[in-house]
Automatic annotation (TrEMBL):
Name of the protein in its database record: ABC transporter ATP-binding protein
PROSITE patterns: ABC_TRANSPORTER_1, ABC_TRANSPORTER_2
Species classification: Bacteria, Bacillati, Actinomycetota, Actinomycetes, Micrococcales
InterPro entries the UniProt entry points to: AAA+_ATPase, ABC_transporter-like_ATP-bd, ABC_transporter-like_CS, P-loop_NTPase
CDD domains: ABC_Iron-Siderophores_B12_Hemin (cd03214)
Domain ABC transporter: 3-235
UniProt KW Nucleotide-binding keyword: yes
An MF annotation (GO) of this entry: ATP binding
Alphabetical list of SUPFAM superfamilies matching this protein: P-loop containing nucleoside triphosphate hydrolases
């Protein structure tokens, strides 16, 4: 399914935390949202799964305004894996992953054998089969995050939203997660802090700064040292191939040139759309 943000502005706490964001995500592509803390990544994503209503603009899935979908249709279309999974779950891992099937049930419907198969497959993909009977509240942060991935996978929605999905995961599970996500063939929007993960696994990256989309395009074209320095205020050395850059970061030290601003021209490739 195609996802479109058309001139979206989000106002929270009396401030426009997302300003006139326009973005088109093609069906089956993996798009990474990157940007400093507070730049608006989560707020923009929240408009897609209707946790926030844009003050202006429209968010569409396959041409339909998400605000006009029924709750059930919206839940079938978009699954969400949040940044900080809840810790107060009084459910087992398997019961939690089964919650992903709810949008597929008729009212008061029971779990079917198909549900159980989908859940088993989702747990296998998320590497948590051996945790199936554990209570979620007893798991580590990374294990809990993988449970939330499995729940989102079990939802079988064509659009998947991941909000900083890897912040509790060790390095191996970070790569496993992104490999799994890429293999699904679904439309994926992921807020990511790790630019190396974004560069390696995303078809496109979208850079937000102070609520505005300042660049969008293929990672190797967008994530230039200049843009990284401007947006994140760090110096970067680029290793690896031109197609698959690997970044090493260094804090700007006193005496470095002043951090440039986005008023300076950005590479042409980086223009949104
Ligand atoms: N409910 C709210 N009320 C008021 N302000 C909010 C609310 N939620 C978010 N904000 C503000 O909106 C801005 C954007 O926040 P958002 O969470 O979208 O950023 P982010 O890029 O996802 O940040 P991070 O990388 O830290 O997760 C921040 O300044 C934040 O403080």
């Amino acid at each position: 399914m195609r996802v479109e943000f058309d001139d979206v502005t989000v106002r929270l706490g009396g401030r426009d935390v997302v300003q006139q964001a326009s973005l088109r995500v093609e069906p089956g592509s993996v798009v990474g949202l990157v940007g400093p803390n507070g730049s608006g990544k989560s707020s923009l994503l929240r408009t897609l799964y209707r946790a926030v209503r844009p003050r202006e603009g429209t968010v569409r899935i396959d041409g339909r305004d998400v605000q006009h979908l029924t709750g059930r249709r919206a839940a079938r279309a978009v699954a969400v894996m949040l940044q900080d999974p809840p810790t107060d779950f009084d459910l087992s891992v398997e019961e939690t992953v089964l919650l992903g099937r709810v949008p597929h049930h008729a009212a008061f419907g029971r779990d079917t054998s198909e549900d159980l198969d989908v859940v088993a497959d989702a747990m296998r993909r998320a590497g948590i089969t051996d945790l199936a009977d554990r209570m979620v509240a007893t798991l580590s942060g990374g294990q809990r995050q993988r449970v939330m991935l499995a729940r989102a996978l079990a939802q079988q929605s064509p659009v998947l939203v991941l909000d900083e999905p890897s912040n509790h995961l060790d390095i191996s599970h970070q790569h496993e997660l992104m490999t799994t996500v890429r293999s699904l063939g679904r439309t994926v929007l992921a807020a990511l802090h790790d630019l190396n993960l974004a560069a390696q696994y995303c078809d496109r990256v979208v850079v937000l700064d102070a609520g505005r989309i300042v660049a969008a395009g293929p990672p190797a074209l967008v994530l230039t040292p200049d843009l990284i320095r401007t947006t994140f205020g760090v110096d970067v050395r680029v290793h690896g191939d031109a197609d698959e850059p690997v970044f090493a970061f260094r804090r700007l030290t006193t005496g470095d040139d002043a951090v440039p601003t986005h008023d300076e021209p950005l590479p042409e490739s980086s223009l949104p759309r």
